[in-house]
Hints:
Chain A is built from 21 helices and 21 strands.
Amino acid sequence: MNKNFTLLIGGIQGEGVVSTGISLMKALSRRGYYTLSERKFSSRIKGGNTHVAITIAKKEEVNSVESCYDMIMAMDQDSIHLNMHQLKPKGILLYDEDIKIDEEWTDGLRSIALPLSAIAKKHGKLFMKNTSVIGCLGKVTGFTYEVLQEMVTEAYGNKGEEVLDQNIAVLKTAFNHASTTISRASFFDSEPAQAKKKMMMIGNEAIAIGAVVAGCRFMAGYPITPASDVMENLALIFPLVGGKTVQTEDEVAAIAMTIGASHAGVRSMTATSGPGMTLMGEGLGLAGMTETPIVVVDAQRAGPSTGMPTKMEQSDLSFLYHGGHGEYAAIILSPSTLQECYEMTVDAFNLADRYQCPVIIMTDLNLSLSAKTIDEISFSEPVIDRGQLASTEILESSYDGGFTRYQLTENGISARAIPGTKGGQHQVTGLEHNELGRPSDHPENRKAMMDKRMKKTDPLKEREGIILEGKASGSTLFLTFGSLYGTLKEAWMRTGKNVDLARIGRIKPLPVKQLETLMDQYEKIIVVECNYHGQLANIINQETGQPQKVKSITRYDGKGFSIEEMMEIMDRWCQEWK
Amino acid sequence: MEMKDYGNGLNPTWCKGCGHFSILRSLQTTASRMNIPREMLAVVSGIGCSGRISGYMNAYSFHSVHGRSLPVAQGIKLANPDLIVVAAGGDGDGFAIGTSHTVHAIRRNMDITYIVMNNQVYGLTKGHVSPVSHQGFKTKTTPMGSVDMPLEPGLLALASGASFYAQGFSAQQEELIELIQNAIEHPGFSLVQVFSPCVTYNKVNTYQWFREHLKSADEVRKADPSDYLGSMQLLKETEGLCTGVIYQNRTKLSYEELHQEVKEKNLATQDLRMTEAVYQQITERFKL
Ligand SMILES: Cc1ncc(C[n+]2csc(CCOP(=O)(O)OP(=O)(O)O)c2C)c(N)n1
Ligand code: SF4
């Protein structure tokens, strides 16, 4: 019996492929299944082929979408010839009978033609083809007709009576047709145990929820794939808690506005992807120099330039790590799971306020956009640490205009005074400045201020930032981050865990102390990442100086690794380091 | 509060005779006349000789980066609508690197005031052509004279939907103070463009030149400042060389009026704690 079931739904962009997938995932999750999807799409809105692969499991959260499918549901021709070779030997191809089929493709395969378009046209409109798909797939995955009707009602209830009625007619006919032509896939014969409460979301949504829980009440952004959902979600949530989103004229304005809002006392963030991140370089420097806390999400995609906007890559890392012009302290967090997207975002706001510097939450396209069923993230009141704020006593005791916003302190952190606070008026400038915030390029002052700013985040170097899986048994440690972690974990579980596995959650400051311990412990640390240079491996080498310990495995074709490829790599390394 | 209470005792680094001095004094005098509590005044500036203005104010001042005073200022205002927010910068700041922010800030119509300290040259970089320099203007980067057509700030502002647009002259300080006060009192975005001669790098558009060319808007205009086309015409007829309130639309709703929640809720001072009930509400969409 298979541990999971993988279904691919493909069609022409704009035909409702993704929404069909999501509806199905939601309905399955309500029945107790865990699901994870991966979208493959072009940046075109309509016309290009798009498909979504969904892996469905019964017992626990799905780590990675399988690259071999148990079933393909094709609404267009491309979906067939692009994916046929990934159908398992016993898999089934379901396809719209209107598609012209090349005999060669389906030779020796189990394939069933379904009147998807015909039913839609007869009982409604052609564009209701996706409802035919739901009817057929509903049958295959073991739904009762009533549940499917509820699903369709939920989706089209607000689109007017006629649209709803037609969709229901399409659904009914498709379901009945499927009942006579296809049977339920055996994976769905037994139902999962309905133990835990579940949620379904994408990484960007988990980040948005985390931000609101952390007390973020301002977000300025400029739309870009795959980051836009952060702003879209906050725009929906903020009215409930009293917050504000602004779609600015560009990313330069977005980060500057974020800095202004944060300076004025509200927890603020922005979110973007590579091209926007470049524009935000200016603002990162300003936040670094003025010690203004901000949170910036970089949902990475394949660059440089517009690159492959809908493909996965992790190639902004070097740029983020080394920053733009000049030097300043910054923190980079790297979530690998939805739970971490949530938790690290909460953490990011505390770190930003505590260390008064930019905090970057670095994700990647797959983590940002893949919908996943997870066990419910339950509420626990977050710790909200606004960092050092000047007390009224201090402000009242300083002479007029004498508040030392940039006081030189032991740990480099000095108290802020928020505009509106009496006695706290001071200057903030992107120029080098003295303790009062007044411009000064005196060499002694410059050195003292640089040291102050740079040492603020030093304590984090001592703190752990790598999360290990396994029991430190092997001689090889596989280290990765972002959405690759799920794939590595699945491969690791299947290869018999002869190597150890870890993900890095904080890249800057790099957990140098922990890395040094790991280097003593392991023969080799194999860093797996999606970029050309092996950027994380390079950073680790630069900071720890033991390149002989580090091996880098990279991929930069926009596809990422499959579970099978990862298993092969792990096996090979196990042999070599036995 | 006296005018001097809005200064911080620093001596401006500006050249003797620079028009920017008068703008600083006008802003301080306006703050004093309006009796703005210093902690409630936020002055945000860009980079340039002009950008230094925030650093001479006893207020919450923010000297940002070249061209970005407006986004920073809008962020401050959105966070805390109780603050009086004034942004300032040069013509390079507002009409070259920051043009897009100027246009979009006008469009958003937030209740902030923007003072453009226009000397038709880049002072800080030691005399380069600006987008409002006249054709033929010779600088180090335009040794044969500038070929590009100058932008017309007034027409740009009005075309972008400005609800308040005024022009002043550094040498007419009393008028300038009044204009800045009108601008701050205007509910919505107010732009005050000030002819502020650079005595070091602009030997063409000097105090004398402006005295000869500037007209009083009130004397020239045929219609009242609420008349959009009349104001456009005034700018056209005077080639932009006039001072006074050029245009004011009191009926256009400000950002704050359109977004009541912004006015009612001070984001900067609200309680951040989240209750379980609210958490359940915001996560409802994701539950199964
Ligand atoms: C991104 C960036 N580009 C260029 C500069 C250099 N720079 C500083 S001020 C300035 C122009 C100043 O002219 P203006 O805004 O008219 O102000 P003024 O000095 O004349 O008052 C330039 C180009 C900079 N600081 N930042
Ligand atoms: S260079 Fe020009 S603008 Fe700059 S301070 Fe001197 S006179 Fe003023």
